[in-house]
Amino acid sequence: MVEHITGMLALIGVLSLVCQWVGWKLRLPAILPLLLCGLLLGPGLDVLQPDELFGDLLFPIISLGVAVILFEGALTLNFKEINEHGRMVSHLVSVGALITWACIAPAAHYILGFDWSIACLFGALVVVTGPTVIVPMLRTVQPSAKLSSILRWEGIVIDPIGALLAVLVYEYIAVTADPTTHVLYALGLTLLIGLGGGALSGYLVGVALRRNLFPHYLKNTAVLTIMLGIFVGSNLLQEEAGLLTVTVMGIWLANMRGVDIADILEFKETLTVLLISALFILLAARLDSNAMLDLGWGGILVLLVVMFIARPLSIWVSGIGTNLTSQDKWFLSWVAPRGIVAAAISSLFAIKLEALGFSSASSIVPLVFMIIIGTVVIQSLTAGTWAKILGVKQGSAQGLLIFGASKFSRELAKLLTSKNVPVILADNNWDSIRQARMDNIPVYFGNPASEHAETYMDLSGIGRVLVMSPYRQLNPLVTFHFQDVLGDDKVYGLNNSDAASARHQLSESYLQRLCLFGENVSYAKIASIMAKGGQLKVTNITDNFSFDDFLKRYGDTAIPLLYLTKEGKVKVISGSKLQEYPVGIELICLLPVEAQQQAEIQRAIDEEKLRLAKIEAEQQAKIAAKQRELQLAEEKLQRKQQELNDFEAQQQQEMLEEERNELIHNEGQDKQTELANTKLSVKGDEGN
């Protein structure tokens, strides 16, 4: 028997890992393979029977696991982040959640005949979506950055809010079901212990963390242990008050000033992944296949209400007063898969309510799992096509995630941001992150390959990763992680290896790929250049100023980094091949002091050449002007000579004309005289 229990526990652990890997590999929410695995082992093959395997320990295991899941989710609920991520997110997690609840609860009551109390609990359970199902779907669908951010932050924020709503509804049902206790007294005591005890414990733990009362290696373990102790203590003071207490405790810690919960959150996330995987297989294995079939068309109708009435109504009401288009709202109306919180809490509450005499509570679990399977499967398969039809799918992602927020990275990020290229800087060094924030650069503080980063770091519009940090042990992890996420050709590494040590630890194939910005460019080289006064420079490569002209001006010490095309695409320069730079690009380079000095010398030479050329041009212009003056003078002289010639010719013509006229006149007078003489002669003859 012991060997059987040990073997089943090992099997659950191995299958949990396999399901998580399958979900990651297929870009699907891990909840789907976990669900299928649990259904196959339980109702399908009858290999795994959790109730027989764990006996009386099953309920405490599920109870403690749900407490950890709720506490981890509550740690993410920072009220500032709700306001920072837009009116739409704020509306969705408040008004939208209430609308969803108000639509689903009556549907469960009237369609399936649930009691109003059970129907309200079911409605509260399926309000939540959750980042564990949203993030993998967004990676596959790739909607616009705005829509991706809305859905991602809705899943993060609604997780603890929906869980808190479900806990409050359950607490009300639990106290009203106890005939020996006054309802108002029991409910008041539950709220007092849950709200007051959660706030007080959260404050005290926060003070202890702020004053560093725990050594670093005990901090995560101490918080987890204290949380579980408070959960059990609250339940001892008032039955079922523990879930509310740990939820409020987590929310208080998340919003307490001066308390760094990043390490705690990362530890809790790792633990939660293990708990989610194991719990989901166990919970799915407990399902009664006949119970799901008994839901029949009623269960399908409730699923249709969830997808086609509750979600669209909450989106369109929440979208009032926002700048979302109709296409944006129709897309958001279709994407709302339910996740692990609904499954885990529903199973826990069903066990407790059945113990209190609610026979209909057994129907909650199969109905919740039907909603989870339906929304995850249908929306995963159709969301991408729907995004294309609506035209809300983002184009080729040109943004950059830069791991390492050194001075060089910050200067490069500022330059790219000024060119409207999305950039995120990630680093473990708080001082570097703080300086980047002062420059208004989007940042992520921590390991970008962590589970926390996968949920909270917004990679919308990010298409490539530049690994440029001094952390030799962490760089390969970040490189391999994002190669799996984005592809091998989308991750570029800067050489940061030590030939004496790292080459024995890292593979040759990996080291050969560390050729960002060129084969001979290393992190140390760039850091040295920046420390000595290196600068980033943007140069337009045109027909009048080619890359050869660039090299002539700046020399071989200039390091081309990347360039922007006319179409707005970003091309990262990497490898040992000689790059060909087309005309019309903006080339971004790192200029060492030597290149700057050479550029100054070359610029002075060019300016001197330009000055001499200008002087020569001025002299040539003067000579040309003199030549034009002489030419004009000659032309004027020629015109005068021509005028003179014309005048002399005219005078001569006039003189000839006068002489001719005079000759004609004289000849006429002679003829008249001769005629007169002839007449006189004739008259004389007649007289004689």
UniProtKB/TrEMBL annotation:
The protein's matches in InterPro entries, at most eight in alphabetical order, are given as: Cation/H_exchanger_TM, Na+/solute_symporter_sf, NAD(P)-bd_dom_sf, RCK_N
Alphabetical UniProt keywords: Antiport, Cell membrane, Ion transport, Membrane, Transmembrane, Transmembrane helix, Transport
Compartments where located:
Cell membrane
Task: Name the GO terms of the biological process aspect.
Answer: potassium ion transport; proton transmembrane transport
The highest taxon in the source lineage is Bacteria
Give the bilayer topology.
Multi-pass membrane protein
- Under what name is this protein listed? Sodium:proton antiporter
- This chain's source organism reads Shewanella maritima
Any GO molecular function: antiporter activity
For this protein's source organism, the top of the classification is: Bacteria, Pseudomonadati, Pseudomonadota, Gammaproteobacteria, Alteromonadales
Q: Does the keyword Membrane apply?
A: yes
Domain RCK N-terminal as annotated: residue spans:
401-491
| Record region (Disordered) | 644-688
PANTHER family, alphabetically?
NA(+)/H(+) ANTIPORTER 1, NA(+)_H(+) ANTIPORTER 2-RELATED
Where is there biased composition of kind Basic and acidic residues? 661-673
List the record's Gene Ontology CC terms alphabetically.
plasma membrane
**Where in this chain does the record put each Cation/H+ exchanger transmembrane domain?**
14-386
Residue stretches spanning the membrane: 6-23, 57-77, 89-110, 116-138, 150-170, 182-205, 217-236, 271-289, 295-318, 330-351, 363-387
